[in-house]
Amino acid sequence: MDKFFRLILAGIVAGFVLFLVATLAYKYNNQLSDPSLRYLFRENISMKWFYKLLFLNIGMGMVMAVFYSVITNGLPGNGVVKGIFMGFMIWFLLITQPLITLILAGTLTQGLLVSWLAQGLVSYVAAGICISVVYKA
After folding, report:
1. 115-132 mean pLDDT
2. What pLDDT was estimated at residue 38?
3. What is the C-alpha to C-alpha distance for residues 123 and 135, in angstroms, rounded to an integer?
4. Cα–Cα distance, 29 to 137 (Å, whole number)
5. Phi, psi (degrees; rounded to nearest 5) at 131
6. Vertex 115 angle, CA 14 and 107, to 5°
């Protein structure tokens, strides 16, 4: 039961980290890092929208925590290094396909590229570190 509780807590913490980095990136850029989110929620950006984004990120954090618990023995390193590696791996898997698609379609903007590379890398690696620390604590 203790491991299950740590898994849930790790997912929630990772979700908050993902949400915090996405919110800071939005505040800095004044645009969404992923324009497809507008179509997901189909409404203007408001506090209601950010609450929905918070729950979406907590869900992603939970998925990452479950994924971490499944592959933790196969990850290289110990403790935080495992979290860094897992966060980088998830970031790479999530960014590669949309990035290639946008490059081939010719619709990739420099701002979106920087946002995906910087904000995505920071948020997923930070979430991976949080998961590894909470899950092993």
Report:
1. 86
2. 53
3. 18
4. 35
5. -65, -45
6. 130
